[in-house]
Design a protein that fits this description.
ubiquinone; electron transport; translocase; 16 helices; single chain; 335 residues; NAD
């Protein structure tokens, strides 16, 4: 059970407050203030864990986010000289803050030095404000080509770089970069599409991280030697990983299907869509490597009993990935 200390509870509240201020702001100054409040609240949360690498990750995260904020502020005086570069600088600063390729170099190393709850926040909550800002400024700018290139590079780098990883946090970090490519493509169409994609990705990522955190799994080999005698736990991990990879008919496939549908309706670039689908197959491959390892290999017999009772919330959260199977029944009841 995750119990927050008083200072962690305070900084978690101010972190969410910073996100709400940034999303609901009506001026650039309030938007910048919300981003800084979110940043200064997340640094103590990162450095409060007992991991010896947490201070290093907190310092890396602070330096990168400070660079993004400085670039964001630099756009104000530059706009008085070269107004056409204002949105370009802001867009590059937001891509750096969100960890999208080719400005992704800091994201896997910061993820590797954090604990699982902080890693989940870094993959989900910390991306809300920059993505909403990109969604707001994109219609008024002429830099959609940059978004397309960032989407393509994020999907390819996230899929290819995750193939040779054995650490679970780095695998999830490159998977997050790959999903960022899909979210950037969803931003290009409409606001509701990326919100649906982000909420679905957060739920599926939470189901995976909750299992990995409850069993303290940080390496693929730990899945092999861990005492996975609990069949519901094994099945829930299997479903959560496949859903995060985007295998139909699980929950992780639905937002990707909606993005594909928007590509077809709007007659967007089929090459762009083909690259996204190719990268999705790559991520599904290294998630299958993780998922099938607990099924295909038998656990070694040990003299001591290592079986631990898993919380019921672990199974409930993981079986959310099967919710699309109930949608036809719900629609039949409604109509």
């Amino acid at each position: 059970m995750l119990i927050l200390s008083p200072h962690q509870l305070l900084f978690s509240f101010t972190l969410l407050l910073g996100v709400f201020v940034a999303v609901s702001s009506s001026s650039w100054f309030l938007l910048w203030m919300g981003l800084e409040l979110n940043l200064m609240s997340f640094i103590p949360i990162l450095s409060s864990s007992s991991n010896r690498y947490s201070a290093e990750s907190a310092l890396k995260y602070f330096l990168i986010q400070a660079l993004g904020s400085a670039s964001f502020l630099a756009a104000a005086p530059i706009s008085m000289i070269l107004h056409s570069l204002t949105f370009l600088i802001i867009l590059m600063a937001l891509l750096l803050k969100v960890g999208a390729a080719p400005l992704h170099f800091w994201f896997p190393s910061v993820m590797q030095g954090t604990q699982w709850p902080q890693a989940l926040s870094l993959m989900t909550i910390q991306k809300i404000a920059p993505i909403s800002m990109m969604s707001a400024i994109l219609p008024s700018s002429n830099y959609s080509v940059i978004m397309i290139m960032a989407s393509i590079s994020s999907s390819l780098i996230g899929g290819l770089s995750g193939l040779n990883q054995t650490l679970t946090r780095k695998i999830l970090s490159y998977s997050s970069i790959n999903h960022m490519g899909w979210m950037l493509s969803a931003i290009m169409f409409n606001e509701s599409l990326w919100i649906i994609y982000f909420v679905s990705y957060s739920v599926v990522s939470g189901s995976v991280v909750f299992i990995l955190h409850s069993n303290q799994i940080f390496h693929i080999n730990q899945i092999l030697v861990m005492n996975f005698f609990s069949k519901p736990l094994k099945f829930s991990l299997f479903l959560a990983l496949l859903s995060l990879g985007g295998l139909p008919p699980l929950l992780g496939f639905l937002p990707k299907m909606m993005v594909i549908q928007e590509f077809i309706i709007s007659s967007a670039s089929l090459l762009w869509l083909g690259i996204l689908l190719f990268s999705a197959l790559l991520t599904l491959f290294f998630y299958l490597r993780m998922a099938l390892s607990s099924f295909m290999l038998a656990s070694p017999k040990m003299k001591m009993n290592l079986t631990s009772s898993q919380p019921r919330q672990t199974f409930i959260l993981s079986f959310v990935n099967l919710s699309p199977l109930l949608y036809p029944l719900i629609l039949a009841i409604i109509y």
